């Protein structure tokens, strides 16, 4: 099992009121791969992401996240409505109540899935280092007493967190900007900081939502290298949404194509390039040429 | 039995007034996504204007009740609407791009300003207007009876007419379409040539006008008021808006009616000292059990 | 940039504003109700309209000047401004100032007159309230409009705890903090998962409900008549003129009785508590929990994506703030010797919020200064007491438009560069 899929999405359905955003999505992501989720605008890519990362509670289907240490059902930890059976079985009731009260997307992250956002979400009025320290909240020394008395153990834990923060700043080449406000950074730097921040939560799977949007070609090149480093040196599986087809074809091992809330093709880049359905979806749906197949 | 029926009738009138005020909360929330904290005080201002207009009319020797109520309604709606407009201009528009917290604090500030401004101008003592219309319809039921004063009948009538007119405006007219479009997507609406700033102003004016209708009706029924009345009634109307589903117009009306009736029943059957505690607990319970309210759509976060 | 000013446009703006002012102020300011009759005050309306017209003219001219345009541009571009990160080896001048302030603070009760001392005590109580609310509003970005409810819990906790359970000041100090925190948890847990605005209105209701209960539940709280509250004791010695059993403070030390002693003692404890809270606050922003609060204020969704349970993090800020409010309440009760519901109205919450807003959301020093400013000044200018609330309101609106971060600049501490390593 451990070498298999890190993420299994089965029959995922998502409705907003009467609008069916996702219809019966099924795909698997292999551990250690770089996979991409592509499709025309409005195909439902970001909706899939939001379901995977627990920001939307899917209307139906299963999402299983299988990391090295834990097996998580993403939909369950968000807190489901009570079922009639719960009132018979106290254990099931307590479990559901627990997730209803304390569940949420943060549990998805704690299970080893980190994400970035299409419209960058940094803590703009905090410094760059502090952004990375917040990301280590779960591993930090959170004891109130130790913190207020500034004990040795607390200082050591803080130092360790700082070391880790500066390590990741080194990886994304932002060490010299450590003490600037995150909001002051340039667009490309903010994108890199966001990736570093999500890496600070020790994920096994990282979901990048349009990481190359707004970057120039050389920055995109850098990003591609960085994604490879993440996978090769840090054992992270990468799932990304991207419009830059050159980049997608370059780094992906596996591609899932969505259109109108449905999976229209899955496979390796070579396969996808020549898939008539994919070509039709792109050329039929859009005038502007982002595709470059 | 008759007490229950009597409280139902009282609750219905009270609730229709809550519904009118709740419309102001729900429309503003729908369009700019924030609670208009000064709305209760707009209601309070309208109560003062009602009394002033009634006093002026009697000074000019107008005694006929229909003229008084129609005149008061028109003048009060106009002036209170102007207050709604001015509040938006001063305390909300400059903060359109600021953080939520800043806008909220500014709204609280506005509420304090209105309260104290009225208190200083008109004095802190309680004010009142004379009883303009007496008499009631009485139904005998078994040993007891239920009575509805003519004033309460007028409240029901005017409240439902106002709601009907508003619903018509929002559903059928061009202005209403523009309001709904701005509520759905302000950016897109402005790209399509809708002056969203103006629409937001209009929504504030509509909300204030509805509060003004409520102010006229309640003031004519109860007679007494002071500069503090907007506070509690504001929280209750907000509860009504949340109960019905904030952002939903029919929800505000429904929520108002349910809150008014349940509060009257609670006051009549259990304890009138704690009826405010009851309404407030209701608010907390709705927020826990069904935050989107009865008719509201569940909120989808934009991630 | 064209800096010529179009006076004609300004004049038109001014006349329109004047007409609007006439409509707005005409009835409320010009016609004062007197029973079912009224008196007219046309001169007041004229003044109001004139002020609005002149003000509008001035603003209109200013916004057309180059400086005004610059300000408009800054606003529309959403420039936050005012936050700076200090360099890692920056040494604050406060190191020299703090000991002096502490020394002066400790000397105050021995030099000040009794009246000044009581005013300063009240000021310090508001410092405490301001600090408590600043954790909630300033750091965590949660608008709490019922802070006075926690203050009331502390104050009534002391008074009722003494009456029914015989608990004194020293035991109630921690118990009140815990009680207030529990009340905060019960109130906050259901509401904190919602949109921030709901919290504002629920807390607003909560503050009012607490007051209503204190007023109406007369069997326990004695209703509007209030309850008396005990004084703190000095290692068991009371600050009364005489007690039935045991010795009093002045007897034990062979001093003649002076009612000022109790104020001195309350002042000293309060001063130490304020220092402690200041220190804790200073530490909190450098601890994971404090950083999480601020991060949550900046972006809740990002926080959730990083594994932070936003409800619990907010709840911790809410409870922490509430407990400081409870402690302030205990001091208030013992200082007054008596509590009744009229001390805990919404206006009190508004005052505390005004302190936080003026001092700066998140700034500690600013809050201390603002607390003294807003409590001591009205004490000195009693003839303006009527306009106090109006002033708070104007202050909130103006501050939010002009300087939402408060008057004191917010600084963040920088970190020295590390080599960086994992594990």
From TrEMBL, chain A:
<dbReference type="GO" id="GO:0005524">
    <property type="term" value="F:ATP binding"/>
</dbReference>
<dbReference type="InterPro" id="IPR032823">
    <property type="entry name" value="BCA_ABC_TP_C"/>
</dbReference>
<dbReference type="InterPro" id="IPR051120">
    <property type="entry name" value="ABC_AA/LPS_Transport"/>
</dbReference>
<keyword id="KW-0813">Transport</keyword>
<dbReference type="Pfam" id="PF12399">
    <property type="entry name" value="BCA_ABC_TP_C"/>
</dbReference>
<dbReference type="InterPro" id="IPR003593">
    <property type="entry name" value="AAA+_ATPase"/>
</dbReference>
<keyword id="KW-0547">Nucleotide-binding</keyword>
<keyword id="KW-0029">Amino-acid transport</keyword>
<comment type="similarity">
    <text>Belongs to the ABC transporter superfamily.</text>
</comment>
<keyword id="KW-0067">ATP-binding</keyword>
<dbReference type="InterPro" id="IPR017871">
    <property type="entry name" value="ABC_transporter-like_CS"/>
</dbReference>
<protein>
    <submittedName>
        <fullName>ATP-binding cassette domain-containing protein</fullName>
    </submittedName>
</protein>
<dbReference type="InterPro" id="IPR003439">
    <property type="entry name" value="ABC_transporter-like_ATP-bd"/>
</dbReference>
<dbReference type="Pfam" id="PF00005">
    <property type="entry name" value="ABC_tran"/>
</dbReference>
<dbReference type="InterPro" id="IPR027417">
    <property type="entry name" value="P-loop_NTPase"/>
</dbReference>
Automatic annotation (TrEMBL), chain B:
<dbReference type="InterPro" id="IPR001851">
    <property type="entry name" value="ABC_transp_permease"/>
</dbReference>
<keyword id="KW-0997">Cell inner membrane</keyword>
<feature type="transmembrane region" description="Helical">
    <location>
        <begin position="199"/>
        <end position="219"/>
    </location>
</feature>
<keyword id="KW-0472">Membrane</keyword>
<feature type="transmembrane region" description="Helical">
    <location>
        <begin position="67"/>
        <end position="87"/>
    </location>
</feature>
<keyword id="KW-0029">Amino-acid transport</keyword>
<keyword id="KW-0813">Transport</keyword>
<dbReference type="Pfam" id="PF02653">
    <property type="entry name" value="BPD_transp_2"/>
</dbReference>
<keyword id="KW-1003">Cell membrane</keyword>
<feature type="transmembrane region" description="Helical">
    <location>
        <begin position="277"/>
        <end position="296"/>
    </location>
</feature>
<feature type="transmembrane region" description="Helical">
    <location>
        <begin position="42"/>
        <end position="61"/>
    </location>
</feature>
<feature type="transmembrane region" description="Helical">
    <location>
        <begin position="150"/>
        <end position="170"/>
    </location>
</feature>
<dbReference type="InterPro" id="IPR052157">
    <property type="entry name" value="BCAA_transport_permease"/>
</dbReference>
<protein>
    <submittedName>
        <fullName>Branched-chain amino acid ABC transporter permease LivH</fullName>
    </submittedName>
</protein>
<keyword id="KW-1133">Transmembrane helix</keyword>
Automatic annotation (TrEMBL), chain C:
<dbReference type="Pfam" id="PF02653">
    <property type="entry name" value="BPD_transp_2"/>
</dbReference>
<feature type="transmembrane region" description="Helical">
    <location>
        <begin position="94"/>
        <end position="112"/>
    </location>
</feature>
<feature type="domain" description="High-affinity branched-chain amino acid transport system permease LivHM N-terminal">
    <location>
        <begin position="9"/>
        <end position="107"/>
    </location>
</feature>
<feature type="transmembrane region" description="Helical">
    <location>
        <begin position="168"/>
        <end position="191"/>
    </location>
</feature>
<feature type="transmembrane region" description="Helical">
    <location>
        <begin position="45"/>
        <end position="65"/>
    </location>
</feature>
<keyword id="KW-0812">Transmembrane</keyword>
<protein>
    <submittedName>
        <fullName>High-affinity branched-chain amino acid ABC transporter permease LivM</fullName>
    </submittedName>
</protein>
<feature type="transmembrane region" description="Helical">
    <location>
        <begin position="142"/>
        <end position="162"/>
    </location>
</feature>
<feature type="transmembrane region" description="Helical">
    <location>
        <begin position="350"/>
        <end position="377"/>
    </location>
</feature>
<dbReference type="Pfam" id="PF11862">
    <property type="entry name" value="DUF3382"/>
</dbReference>
<feature type="transmembrane region" description="Helical">
    <location>
        <begin position="118"/>
        <end position="137"/>
    </location>
</feature>
<dbReference type="InterPro" id="IPR043428">
    <property type="entry name" value="LivM-like"/>
</dbReference>
<feature type="transmembrane region" description="Helical">
    <location>
        <begin position="315"/>
        <end position="338"/>
    </location>
</feature>
<dbReference type="InterPro" id="IPR021807">
    <property type="entry name" value="LivHM_N"/>
</dbReference>
<keyword id="KW-0472">Membrane</keyword>
């Amino acid at each position: 099992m451990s070498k298999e899929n890190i993420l299994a999405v089965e029959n995922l359905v998502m409705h907003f009121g009467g609008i069916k955003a996702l219809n019966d999505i099924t795909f698997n992501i292999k551990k250690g791969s770089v996979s991409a989720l592509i499709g025309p605008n409005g195909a439902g890519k970001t909706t899939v992401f939001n379901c995977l990362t627990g920001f939307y509670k899917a209307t139906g289907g299963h999402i299983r996240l299988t990391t090295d240490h834990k097996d998580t059902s993403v939909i369950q930890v968000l807190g489901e409505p009570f079922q009639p059976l719960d009132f018979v079985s106290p254990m099931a009731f307590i479990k559901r109540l627990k997730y209803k009260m304390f569940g949420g997307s943060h549990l998805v992250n704690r299970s080893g899935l980190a994400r970035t956002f299409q419209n960058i979400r940094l803590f703009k009025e905090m410094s760059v280092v502090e952004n990375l320290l917040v990301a280590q909240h779960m591993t930090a020394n959170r004891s109130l007493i130790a913190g207020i008395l500034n004990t040795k153990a607390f200082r050591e834990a803080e130092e360790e967190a700082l070391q880790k923060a500066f390590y990741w700043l080194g990886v994304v080449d932002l060490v010299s900007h450590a003490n600037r406000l995150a909001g002051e950074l340039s667009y490309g730097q903010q994108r890199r900081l966001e990736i570093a921040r999500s890496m600070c939560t020790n994920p096994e799977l990282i979901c990048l939502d349009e990481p190359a949007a707004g970057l120039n070609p050389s920055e995109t090149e850098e990003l591609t290298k960085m994604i490879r480093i993440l996978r090769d040196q840090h054992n992270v599986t990468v799932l990304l949404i991207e419009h830059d087809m050159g980049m997608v074809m370059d780094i992906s091992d596996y591609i899932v194509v969505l259109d109108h809330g449905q999976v229209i093709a899955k496979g390796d880049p070579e396969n996808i390039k020549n898939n008539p359905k994919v070509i039709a979806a792109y050329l039929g749906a859009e005038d502007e040429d982002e595709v470059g197949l | 039995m008759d007490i229950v029926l009597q409280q139902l009738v009282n609750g219905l009138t009270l609730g229709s007034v809550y519904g009118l005020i709740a419309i102001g909360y729900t429309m503003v929330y729908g369009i700019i996504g924030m609670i208009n904290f000064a709305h209760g005080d707009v209601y309070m201002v309208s109560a003062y204007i009602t009394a002033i207009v009634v006093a002026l009319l009697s000074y000019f020797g107008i005694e006929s009740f229909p003229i008084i109520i129609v005149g008061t309604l028109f003048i009060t709606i106009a002036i209170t609407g102007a207050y709604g407009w001015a509040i938006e201009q001063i305390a909300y528009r400059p903060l359109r791009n600021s953080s939520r917290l800043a806008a909220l604090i500014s709204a609280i500030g506005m509420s304090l300003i209105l309260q104290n401004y009225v208190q200083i101008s008109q004095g802190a003592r309680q004010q009142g207007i004379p009883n303009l219309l007496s008499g009631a319809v009485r139904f005998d039921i078994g040993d007891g009876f239920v009575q509805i004063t003519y004033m309460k009948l007028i409240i029901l009538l005017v409240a439902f007419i106002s709601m009907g007119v508003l619903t018509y405006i929002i559903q059928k007219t061009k202005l209403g379409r523009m309001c709904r479009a701005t509520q759905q997507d302000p950016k897109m609406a402005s790209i399509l040539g809708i002056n969203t700033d103006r629409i937001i102003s209009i929504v504030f004016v509509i909300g204030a006008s509805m509060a003004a209708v409520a102010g006229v009706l309640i003031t004519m029924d109860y007679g007494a008021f002071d500069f503090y009345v907007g506070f509690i009634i504001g929280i209750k109307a907000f509860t009504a808006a949340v109960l019905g589903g904030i952002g939903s117009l029919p929800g505000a009306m429904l929520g108002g009616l349910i809150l008014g009736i349940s509060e009257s029943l609670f006051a009549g059957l259990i304890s009138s000292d704690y009826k405010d505690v009851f309404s407030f607990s209701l608010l907390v319970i709705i927020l826990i059990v069904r935050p989107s309210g009865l008719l509201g759509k569940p909120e989808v976060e934009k991630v | 940039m064209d800096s010529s000013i179009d006076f004609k446009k300004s004049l038109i703006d001014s006349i329109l504003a004047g007409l609007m002012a006439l409509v707005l102020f005409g009835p409320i300011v010009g016609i004062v109700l007197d029973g079912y009759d009224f008196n007219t005050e046309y001169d007041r309306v004229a003044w109001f309209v004139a002020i609005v017209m002149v003000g509008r003219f001035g603003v209109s001219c200013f916004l057309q000047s180059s400086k005004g345009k610059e300000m408009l541009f800054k606003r529309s571009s959403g420039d936050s401004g005012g936050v700076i990160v200090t360099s890692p080896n920056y040494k604050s001048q406060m190191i020299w100032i703090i000991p002096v302030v502490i020394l002066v603070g400790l000397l105050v009760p021995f030099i000040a007159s009794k009246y000044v001392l009581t005013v300063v005590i009240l000021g310090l109580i508001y410092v405490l309230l301001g600090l408590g609310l600043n954790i909630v509003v300033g750091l965590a970005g949660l608008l709490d409009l019922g802070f006075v409810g926690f203050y009331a819990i502390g104050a009534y906790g002391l008074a009722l705890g003494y009456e029914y359970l015989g608990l004194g000041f020293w035991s109630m100090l921690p118990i009140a903090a815990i009680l207030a925190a529990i009340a905060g948890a019960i109130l906050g847990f259901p509401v904190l998962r919602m949109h921030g605005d709901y919290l504002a209105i629920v807390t607003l209701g909560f503050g009012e409900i607490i007051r209503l209960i204190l007023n109406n539940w007369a069997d326990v709280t004695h209703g509007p008549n209030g309850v008396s509250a005990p004084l703190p004791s000095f290692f068991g010695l009371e600050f009364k003129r005489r007690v039935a059993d045991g010795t009093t403070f002045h007897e034990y030390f062979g001093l003649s009785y002076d009612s000022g002693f109790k104020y001195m003692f309350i002042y000293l404890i309060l001063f130490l508590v304020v220092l402690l809270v200041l220190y804790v606050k200073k530490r909190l922003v450098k601890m994971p929990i404090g950083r999480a609060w601020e991060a949550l204020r900046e972006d809740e969704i990002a926080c959730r994506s990083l594994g932070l349970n936003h409800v619990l993090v907010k709840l911790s800020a809410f409870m922490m703030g509430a407990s400081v409010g409870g402690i302030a309440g205990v001091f208030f009760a013992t200082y007054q010797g008596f509590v009744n519901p009229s001390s805990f109205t919404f206006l009190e919450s508004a005052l505390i919020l005004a302190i936080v807003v003026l001092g700066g959301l998140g700034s500690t020093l600013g809050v201390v200064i603002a607390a003294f400013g807003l409590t001591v000044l009205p004490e000195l200018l009693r003839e303006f007491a009527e306009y106090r609330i109006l002033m708070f309101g104007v202050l909130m609106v103006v501050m939010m438009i002009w300087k939402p971060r408060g008057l004191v600049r917010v600084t963040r501490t920088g970190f020295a560069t590390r080599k960086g390593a994992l594990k």
